[in-house]
Design brief:
single chain; 159 residues; alpha/beta; Chitinase A, domain 3; five-stranded mixed beta sheet
Length: 159
């Protein structure tokens, strides 16, 4: 069974690639140097610096494997996908029935940052907005109940 692709904005996908490159080139070398220095302290059985360096090495290698998998199973949403309707990579302004206007940025599920209004396409709000256009009414189904809103505008998120 093929694994489902995780959708990313170009910016989010590039961050994964940049982090992977950093870990493979810079961080691995730093940890290797930490291990070398710790070995020079002598007896490894009672060497806390060596234990710490080995822990750091394990964390770096685990993150490299995780990033490799995320990149392998990642899919960048093209600009064409956001041209005529709301999709990942769009900034959307909606107006709730109570008059409150809120701006959200739709991102892939691994890029979510609620404090900065970056929401997933799988979230209640995000899934209600996907495929809509300005002027469309949406009903957002949340655990707290349904909320009605109108799409005021949307645009491709600027870098």
């Amino acid at each position: 069974m093929a694994e489902k692709k995780t959708k990313y904005t170009q910016e989010g996908f590039q961050k994964l690639i940049d982090e992977l490159e950093y870990l493979k080139t810079v961080r691995r070398a730093e940890v290797k140097e930490m291990l070398k220095t710790a070995r020079d302290f002598g007896d490894l059985s009672e060497n806390s610096e060596y234990d710490e360096a080995r822990d750091q090495q394990a964390k770096v290698e685990a993150r490299i494997l995780e990033l490799d998998a995320l990149i392998k199973n990642g899919e960048v949403i093209s600009d064409d996908a956001t041209a005529n309707q709301i999709n990942i990579g769009c900034t959307v302004v909606i107006k709730y029935k109570d008059g409150k206007e809120v701006t959200y940025q739709l991102v892939g599920s691994n890029e979510v940052d609620p404090m900065n209004k970056k929401i997933s396409d799988h979230s209640p709000i995000g899934s209600a907005l996907i495929g809509k256009v300005a002027g469309d009414s949406v009903t957002i189904v949340t655990p707290a109940g349904e909320k009605d809103a109108v799409v005021v505008s949307f645009e491709k998120t600027k870098k």
